[in-house]
Input
Amino acid sequence: MTLEEQGALFEEALLQTRIAVLEGTLLRRVADEVFEMAAAYQSDGTAFLRTGDRVNALAGFAYGLGWLDAGSRLGLLESPAVHPPDAADVCIPDSLAAHLDEKTHRYRRMLHSALTMVEAGPDEASPLRAGAEVLHSAAHFWYTDGVEHLNAGDLAGALARFSYGYAWLDAGVRAGLFRVTGERSLFTV
Output
């Protein structure tokens, strides 16, 4: 899938996504914020793509799709499908190779740190505790998959996976499933 196709798929997914939580309920604000984060990163990715910054477009689309999928998994959003990262044909030009290298390695470090700087917030007996574990496991899975892509020399694939996984963790923090035990600046709170 090309980066342009990924952006179009993301835009269509947002148009088809509905808030799954009733207006006026306590979780509605969380659902609105998760959807707004997804939409903001779709918009950012599109803007980066228009200016030729394919590296930030890739990261923006993957991060936003992670927010969308995490929100859907939490039951906050109704989305037609899941959107795991696929960066096979994103065509990052050689002129952006240094930018791709720097951003990919930086996101690896940030996600690695972020994974260690949260703990499940809900009580062990709460069903929300299991939700925290699902989101943390998803973020960890995409981190590990990203490292495998990085080690194989696929920087674009790695960046997409680190960005996507990071969004799952960030969405969990925003939804109140995690307590930040370390550097708060790593999260969108």
Summary: DSSP finds six helices and four strands in the chain. The mean pLDDT is 94. The longest helix spans residues 127-151. The helical segments are 3-16, 28-50, 54-73, 97-116, 127-151, 155-174.
